[in-house]
Specification:
This protein is of the alpha+beta class. Helices cover 29% and strands 22% of the residues.
Length: 93
């Protein structure tokens, strides 16, 4: 049985009860991927379609997102007021 832990938007993130509460799973389902970002599952789908979030992997019929890829995609999202083409000030010409 999985223990559920609340994400930032109040939705639950699945985690097998035999894992430490401090250990983030390295693969999550669609709803949990959305919860990690604090958005709805339908909005998450739009972000994937637009290429702002990574495509999932499929393992024997299970569709899962790599949490490290989600983190990398999140960090690539420009901050408010920052150009989408420039990720940090060190990239300036």
């Amino acid at each position: 049985m999985a223990r559920r832990e609340a994400g930032s938007n109040g939705e639950a993130i699945g985690r097998p009860s035999r894992l430490s509460p401090s250990l983030l799973p390295f693969a999550v389902a669609r709803e949990d991927a959305a919860a990690l970002l604090g958005v709805s599952a339908s909005h998450f789908d739009s972000l994937v379609t637009e290429g702002l979030m990574p495509q999932p992997r499929e393992l024997r019929g299970r569709v899962l997102w790599d949490t490290e890829e989600l983190r990398e995609a999140w960090r690539a999202v420009p901050r408010r007021g920052q150009s989408a083409g420039r990720t940090n000030t060190w990239d300036a010409p």
